[in-house]
Structures are given as structure tokens and as C-alpha cells.
Amino acid sequence: MATLASRHRRLSDGWGELIDLSMQENQILSQTYYPVTYFEMFGRPWRDARRLTVPGVACAQDGLVDLGCGTAQQWFDLCAMVGHPEWIDEQSPLSITEQANLHAEEIYDWLRSHPSDEIRELATAFRIPNAPVANGANIASLDHFQARGSFVRNPRDGFLQPAHPYRISSVHLRRPGPAPRLGEHATTTGRPN
């Protein structure tokens, strides 16, 4: 859309337009789900209600942790992990989500009494899908973001900023440069002020 707008402007006044794309907007387009686009295309929201997955993202003793149970085996292992093997019922007519909702309070109590690293280590041993939950204070220190080089130092002010939202193997991408100061391009585009 921005390219089209710039082209239209170029055809109308001969100058074109400086296009400033935010990194957030670019990264949103790299996500799996497109709720805004979905609404535009189908005239209804992606979902009509939030459906919590238990345990999902939950409070640990020292922050947040993410756990998921998509199979019966993972649910059985979660039951054992939180100290309640008696919850395992291979003949239950209830779905995993329904069973987890029945025991949500006890699951959350157990999670709140353990540090997130310990929960993740134990969940990994049980082969239960898990992940750290990122926030502004810890996101740049998470292993997978460090391994991918997801954050780089801002060349002007030295703070951490997102790197390119995409990766291309065997191609070296240009490191981010400093953003222009307000009005910096007003005289460099050739357009009268």
C-alpha cells in the first residue's frame, strides 16, 4: 500500500514520498495468524471469545511460564508432574481441556509454588511443551533470541532494538543504521520545505 501511495505521489507531483515502515508492522506480517486481515476479508472476528488453555501461560514463583498439553500423554505427564497421578483417567469422556479446567486451581497453585526455570526443566524431562514468556525486561536474554541474533544495538543511542524480522541463509543483511532525526530528510529529498 505504501509503495502504491508513493508511486501515486510521484506521478502527481514528480517528487515521490519517503516511506517509513515500522519494524512492528513488518514483524506482524511474519506471524502465523492474521486477525486484522481475517476480519477485513470475512467481516467477522478471528475468534468470538477467548478460550483459555490450561495451564497455558501461567504465573510461576518468579514470573510467567508457558505449558501446553495437546495430547493425552502430555496431560497424563502434567498430572504426574504436579503430583496428582490420580487425575489420569484413560476412559474419561472429557477432553484434555475440560479435564484441565476441572483441576485448574490445583495446577495453578503448584505452578505458583515453583520457579519458572525449574518448571521448564521438569516439563522438558516429561516432554511437555513449554516456553519462557518474554517481556520487555527479559526478551533479549532468552536463548533462542540470542542464538538468532534477534536484537542488535542501536547504532546511535546504544539501546537494544529488534534486528531484521526475517532471515535469509547465506546472505548477509545490512546492519540497521540510525533512524533519521525529525526533519532530517526534509532537505535531502530535493522537495521544497
From TrEMBL:
Please give the Gene Ontology molecular function terms for this protein.
catalytic activity
Cleavable signal peptide: none
Q: Where is this region: Disordered?
A: 171-193
Q: Which InterPro entries match?
A: CoA-Trfase_fam_III, CoA-Trfase_III_dom3_sf, CoA-Trfase_III_dom_1_sf
- Pfam families recorded for this chain? CoA_transf_3
Name of the protein in question: Uncharacterized protein
- Originating species: Mycobacterium shottsii
User: Lineage of this protein's species?
Assistant: Bacteria, Bacillati, Actinomycetota, Actinomycetes, Mycobacteriales
